[in-house]
Write a structure and sequence with these properties.
Layout (H helix, E strand, L loop, with lengths): L6 E8 L3 H12 L4 E6 L4 E7 L5 E7 L8 H6 L8 E6 L3 H10 L3 E11 L5 E10 L8 E4 L15 E2 L3 E4 L2 H10 L5 E4 L4 E8 L2 E5 L11 E2 L7
Parallel strand pairs: 1-4, 5-8, 10-11
Antiparallel strand pairs: 1-5, 2-3, 3-4, 6-7, 7-8, 9-12, 10-12, 12-13, 13-14
């Protein structure tokens, strides 16, 4: 999966309580939440749900056994308000993506190296790039799995995850920025800056929106007849 052009990789739902949120998610979508691991030195831990088309869902939370604040925590702000939907695009060219982001007036925390122990005890490593733009507070982040097998290869692909939709008061401007970054994503008009996501497992469906006030505890079932 060494594409230099960014492609949709996964959705991350920030949870206040990882165990409770995993239980609720399994009930909501009848999908088994599989073990992830701890991000040592980063202050987070996660659990995963497989999806079709080589993508997956990540439930992520502050690790109660760690005091550190890594790039994910720093990127989403105050821990008391961590209710964020994160959208990742993978690319093998983080340096090029970083350069294009700076050209477009964005700032970043720089390229961050991450790792954790996998379920088999083997080390999993990857790199992240978070960017910020003064006109567009809701943006994806970028990930490079390097030589690590993609998480979706070990997960049961039970979910269907629709490509995220970015809603903003300035859709043309955001669409231009996403295009400059190489991201093929839809930007539509809305009064607030939001990410819209849609999840499905057979007849069980759910949708959610909002970047700064969304977590798995707020994801609601939706009528299958009503598409987002």
């Amino acid at each position: 999966m060494g594409n230099s052009v960014p492609v949709f990789d996964h959705i991350g739902l920030w949870c206040h309580d990882l165990d409770r949120s995993a239980e609720r998610f399994e009930t909501l979508l009848n999908a088994h939440v599989e073990p992830g691991g701890r991000h040592d030195g980063q202050g987070t831990w996660n659990r995963l749900v497989g999806a079709k088309d080589g993508v997956y869902l990540e439930l992520i939370a502050c690790d109660p056994d760690q005091n550190q604040a890594g790039p994910i925590i720093r990127s989403v702000g105050n821990q008391s308000e961590l209710t964020t939907c994160l959208v990742a695009y993978r690319t093998s060219d983080l340096e090029g993506t970083h350069k294009r982001a700076i050209e477009a007036g964005a700032a970043s925390l720089g390229i961050q190296s991450m790792s954790r122990a996998g379920a088999d005890g083997q080390k999993i490593s990857w790199r992240l790039l978070f960017i910020q733009h003064p006109d567009h507070p809701v943006l994806p982040f970028f990930i490079d799995w390097q030589s690590t097998p993609h998480p979706s290869t070990r997960l049961n692909p039970v979910l269907e995850i629709a490509p995220p939709i970015f809603r903003t008061p300035t859709p043309d401007s955001l669409q231009g920025l996403l295009k400059h970054l190489g991201v093929a994503a839809q930007s539509v008009y809305g009064e607030d800056h939001e990410i819209l996501i849609s999840l499905r497992n057979g007849t069980n469906s759910a949708s959610a929106s909002r970047l700064k006030s969304l977590n798995v505890d707020e994801v609601e079932p939706r009528d299958n007849q009503n598409q987002p």
